[in-house]
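USER:
Make up one protein:

ASSISTANT:
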Amino acid sequence: MVSFGFLKDKPQPVRRPAVAGLFYPGDVQELTLTVDELLSKAAPRRIDGRVLAMISPHAGYPYSGHVAAQGYATLRQQQPQRIVLIAPSHVEAFSGAAVFGGRAYATPLGEVVVDRPFCERLVQAGGARFSDSGHGWTVPGRGEHALEVQLPFLQRVLDSMEIVPIVLGDKNMTTCRRLGSTLADLMDPDTVVVASSDLSHYHSYEAAQVLDRRVSEFLLSWDYFSLYSSLEAGECEACGSGPIIATMIAAQQSGGDSVTLLHAANSGDVPPFRREEVVGYLSAVLTRGGQETGPPAATRLSDEEGKRLLEIAQESVRRAVTGEDPMDTSGEAPSLRVPRASFVTLRREGRLRGCIGSVVAREPLATSVATAAAAAALRDPRFAPVSVGELAGIDCHVSVLTPFRLLRDPSKVEVGHHGLLVELNARRGLLLPQVAAEQGWNAETFLEQTCLKAGLEPTAWQDPRAAVYAFTAQLIGE
């Protein structure tokens, strides 16, 4: 067994290897050959712009090494000097983000020095704390692997580097938001954040592909709000969900504007090709100034696409009121099958008659609009259900939302452009962009009214625990 010079509550200067010989070869020569061979088979992508962050799997090298190699072969071109590694904790439960307080992490390839000054700035800013949690052996014969397995790749592709080793003990949004926002303040051109995560666990090959594709869609559209909500609802899986979301926040607030999915696979794709219970993997880079993006989750719909959405909303209202079966939207155009959040507003003689929608991009856009329209007609608790006699006078308006972005400085709210969502203590309130403009509110009143919508005090947006999200919406109406 590999010795491990690190005891809980009594940190040693160097964190010794915990999974050498298990997740990757423990022999120096064999490990070097293994990593170099994986990298040689990878096809590094030319990335326009600067890589801010990367997502990489952490299973044993025979299973996920070929996926991880795609990311590291791409990162080799940039040669960052500092790597912030964020991993989940598989072996120890604790709260918050734990930063290693020692001098270095070691692998059979040698020691990787910890950037102590950066760690201290991170802790002082409140993004994490110095702690042994997640960095040692907490049960006999088992140490955390998710961070360690990234190191041999980094040691082979970077000429020099220092690391910031972070293990997340929980995956709640408050922890992710605090860590991600703090990292964004500290990042410079020499820094890249690496989130360590596998995806779905122990499903059939086909089921895993569906679950993992959902994670990829949220990642490509940079929609960490919907990703978090879908993970919590069990609609997709990622054991490193906390690291992924914290990394997406850090990169987005550092000016990130594009995502490139380098490779996606699962354990059924490698020998012995068992496809009954597989584990999913992906490798991706988040960049600033890049050109590749994913599904058009923030793009403006064409006039024809908007017209079709309005027809879907109108027909869904009619069917709901008359008791007919809901619409089948499975045959709509591909642009209307991208998961996006939406609201449908109904007016009669200029007055609000119903408004229902979704804040999570859980369904394809066409389905989301059809569902919201039917609910606005029948289930808005502020109004009686729309009657058949009212149908001829109902005007439909569709708001197609962009992914939510954390608004670090609420004074930057742009009335008439931004919609707002305020979240605190499990309470959530949302107002669409057009509401503030219609009411003639200034930014502060808009924030206060959004808090009141959530059932909070009007000044709750100033609470440091509160999350304020901004979004925009394309309004489509008669």
User: Anything to note?
Assistant: Confidence is low (pLDDT under 50) at residues 1-9. The chain has twelve helices and 22 strands. The radius of gyration is 24 Å. The longest helix spans residues 303-322.
